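Reviewer 2 asked us to include a model.

Predict the structure of this chain.
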Amino acid sequence: MPNRFDYSKASPPLFHRFMDFSNAIENESSIEQSLRDLIYVRVSQLNLCAFCVDMHVKEAKLHGERELRLYHLPIWRESNLFSDRERASLGWAEILTELGSGGASDAEYEAVREHLSEREVSDLTFAVVCINGWNRVNAAAQGVPGSMDELLGLTGAGLN
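Predicted model (structure tokens):
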């Protein structure tokens, strides 16, 4: 089953710019890869983006993330498997993903600032913006989970 449309071919200049943004986050962010992996999976779960959940779970596994922690992401508030820094980041990511009419409150910002520097909050915010964007692009295109595993080097995750 192919994607509804191929956004990389339909809009090459925009696709390449969005890839540049994604690559900048991967290469220049103060947020460590392991935390970005958790954020990408959790935001993709919230947005019900099957393609991105599939891809980012596999990436996280390849980066050394424990499967149990990935299983616990939907219940991160109740789980004892996440650090205070990870909890603060997951909370911030959820707030920005499910943004209500009031935006992110001062109290919510202060909660994340207890565990992250101003730069880290800013970098985390851009990572959340990026994954939300990819979720929406893949929801529109109806990206097929696993369809790009070989191209993206995800077959080594051992999750078929």
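The chain has a mean pLDDT of 91. The chain has one domain: 12-143. We have added this to the supplementary material.
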